[in-house]
Each structure stands twice: as C-alpha cells, then as structure tokens.
Amino acid sequence: MASLALWVGCLGAALAAVHPVRGFLPDLQFSLQGAGGAVTQQAFAGKVVLMFFGYASCPDICPTTMAQLAQVTEALGPKAEQVRILFVSVDPHRDTPDVLQAYVDQFDRHAIGLTGTESAIAALARRYRVAYQIEKPESNAPDAPYEVAHSRGIYAFDQQGKAVWLASDGESQEDLLAAIRPMLH
Length: 185
Known about the structure:
Layout: E1 18-20, E2 31-34, E3 37-40, E4 48-54, H1 61-75, E5 83-89, H2 97-105, E6 111-114, H3 118-127, E7 132-134, E8 148-150, E9 154-157, E10 163-167, H4 173-180
Parallel strand pairs: 4-5, 5-6
Antiparallel strand pairs: 1-10, 2-3, 4-9, 7-8, 9-10
Helix pairs in contact: 1-4
C-alpha cells in the first residue's frame, strides 16, 4: 500500500510500475463540476477511466502526465473511444470548470477537467489516498501567487467503475498500453 502514496519528488525510477489495486481502492464515485455542469461517475459508465489529480497551472508534472496520457489514447486508435481521462483539480480556487476544460483540451479530446468545492475535492482525495497541499498566499490580494504540491499517480477504473490499477506518472507508454488494452473490448 505504500506505493499508493507516490509523493511529489519522492518517486524514483525503481518505483515506476503499474500496480494492481483491485480490492484495495474503492469504486469510482464522485460528484464534481465540469464545463457543462455537474458530473458524476455515472457519466462514464461503460468507459475505462484514467483519473489523474493535479492543477492547471502546474509547471511540470501535470502537463507531462497529460501529454503522456494523450499519447497513450492516440496509440489506442479507434479503441480510444472506450477511454476517458479525468483530470481532477486539487486547486479549486484557481481552476474553474472552463479553465480546466480549456487546459485538458490542449492535450486530448478524451479528457475532461473536473473541479468542485474544497470539501468535495478533499473527500475525493481521501477516497483515493491522494495527498495535496495548498500553500497559503503571502498576501490577501485576489491574484496573490501560491504553490500547490500533490501526489502523483494515474488511477485506472474498468467499465463498471472498479479500480483496477495505479501507475506512476513516469511509467512508460508501452507499460500503460499493456495495462489498458486488456480492459478494452
């Protein structure tokens, strides 16, 4: 279970792997906001879901992971229609549903940006053992900069919403494809 808490900066190449989590993580369940309004797990019934937690202004981890997931779905060809990438923001203060969707659209048409209230994000993060921290801004100005730290990992759920595996965001495209392909029809 220690592999489930892949903390930013602590992930070495030796830990990069796809870990089976069936029976260890709960089913896909959430109620968040997307660009079109309220979104729940029911919107993805019958799809393989790849869920990643991050934030739109992330300078390195999030864009790299989103690009990696886009490459994976592209490599799936027509079977990519069976997959959805959910990018869940841990920074609901800056990431509106429209900002998130514009962000994920830069990478992949199968991606959906999701956000919610602080309590909804915190509850979902606890559900999947995601660690994150938002640094308090140095001033009270509305546009005061602040840092966000978050754990890393790609969560895969099957067409019934069952957690199947967790991969590091540094996993190879080949290994991710090998883990996804058996989940597709």
